[in-house]
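Q: What does the predicted 3D structure of Phosphoribosylformylglycinamidine synthase subunit PurQ look like?
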Amino acid sequence: MTARIGVVTFPGSLDDRDTQRAIRVAGAEPVALWHKDKDLKQVDAVVLCGGFSYGDYLRAGAIARFSPVMDTVIDQARAGMPVLGICNGFQILTEAHLLPGGMLGNDHLHFICRDQKLRVENADTAWTADYTAGQEIHIPLKNMDGRYVADRRTLDELEAEGRVAFRYLDLNPNGSLNDIAGITNAAGNVVGLMPHPEHAVEPLIGTGRTDGLPFFTSILKKLVNA
């Protein structure tokens, strides 16, 4: 039996089908989850996909954080279930306080869409084990509110504890502090990042590379070998 990975759809989600396909390409079974349903359908892991949940009203991810499904996701994440937040999903994770810090509008005040070079900083999480620390990858990036911010104490803790998972290289596209593109919680089961690995799993699409596929093979191997 293969691993079952849930993908939550909120009103305004954009990349749920792409994420389901990426999971399928990796060899796992994608399971569609609806934001109003607290039942996670016995999945082994959850992905909060990209998009503009609730139109990004109030603040990106601020309303989605209170969707019924998030009550269960928060409880399960704190109990050790792997959870990945991509772009809007990352924003939701910070709003739910599963990850520290927050996301603000890009410093240049424009939507950005580009292939982004990243460095893998932490290859010891549930979602990054198929990478190597220091590896440089290219992942599509598309956001309006992608500027990661946190107070100095939080930034120092993230750096000291090795919890910066990915860092922007060559160009900081949105003004994120410390060039942070993604972070992990202390346990390594919750990861959030602004770039979109689901758009880089097949040579035909996205960057023309498969640099995003290890996100999904990493979690599959962890779950199968658990």
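A (community wiki): The structure tokens above were generated from the sequence. The longest helix spans residues 213-224. The radius of gyration is 16 Å.
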